[in-house]
Amino acid sequence: MSLNDAPSAERIHIGFFGLRNAGKSSVVNAFTGQKLALVSAVKGTTTDPVTKAMELLPLGPVVIIDTPGVDDEGELGELRVRRALQTLNKTDVAVLVVDAALGLREPDRRLLAAFEAKSIPHIIVYNKADLLPAVPEARENELYVSALTGDGIFELKEKVARLMQTVKTDKTLLGDLISPGDVVVLITPIDESAPKGRMILPQQNAMRDVLDHGAINLVVKETELEQALAALSRPPKLVVTDSQAFGKVKDIVPPDMPLTSFSILFARYKGELDLTADGAAAVDSLKDGDTVLIAEACTHHRQCNDIGTVKLPRLITARTGKQLSFAFTSGTEFPDDLSPYALVVHCGGCMINEREMKARLAAARNAGVPVTNYGILLAHLNGILERALQPLTD
Which CATH number applies to 3-167? Predict the structure, then answer.
């Protein structure tokens, strides 16, 4: 996989924040070398976060986010500010753009406090430095630039690159569970919900991770699994299945053969495995009238037998025998207030970055609401959660 092909969820997210007319969009355009953001002298030109995945040398694959001004006014302005602040949940590195002539103002200081509270590495950029009679000496996490002349933009890239190094990790989806030469069986059902002509992202990520660690992929549908296992001269090091196939796969894969799912791997990779594993048991404590939130991080065309909106509600209702309500969110939508829900069931989160996934989990924890994910819940419903967690906890 080339750097340009890296999924957005695997890229460092760099967010640009500030007040209206501080020059955020101009700095973004100078920083990227592209006319990524609309620039105008009119306050509030940026009305929604503008996101762009790109290859930015020497930084590598990144996602750039230009946000609305946090001092916007009126009813619509408040919504824009809310959207800007929600972007903090996915921001790995923050750039606070300040009008150099006006200096830090109270909304800027509130942003800095938010960066600190969320442990987001950040830098303060004083823009329009070309209008100052003399450029002051910048402190460690500050820089004076001019988006108009380009002064200081190269230095800004260097500082951001250094901040990026503080958030990069060597975590892998499953690479630490295998060794070179190991055989890994990946079970990928092809049904009405499978995309035509391609594999879904968790399956792609797993295949690439196996290859990157010198191991051997055996990709098979659940209908050919028994035949595939019989053809192997030695047992696989790991079997990974689509969670929806747990019911069939668990009876084919011998008990002494390590078995887990793509979604459970993602719970460890970019979530909190213990928290979501504990949350699965809450399904057995649901009561009549409870509401279950089912949240997906992606947006896609719903199939007639969609996992989130059809299969999971049906399985949960059958398990509990209770009169339940179900609420659904997708994409960037996720409630600020989770108190109305008795349980949150989240997808694996392959389409969002680790910071946003953990922000959603933290929201559930802080609200005292149990949270789990699709794969972990399906393993629990099939009575094999302990077995499916074993390869990840050894």
Answer: 3.40.50.300
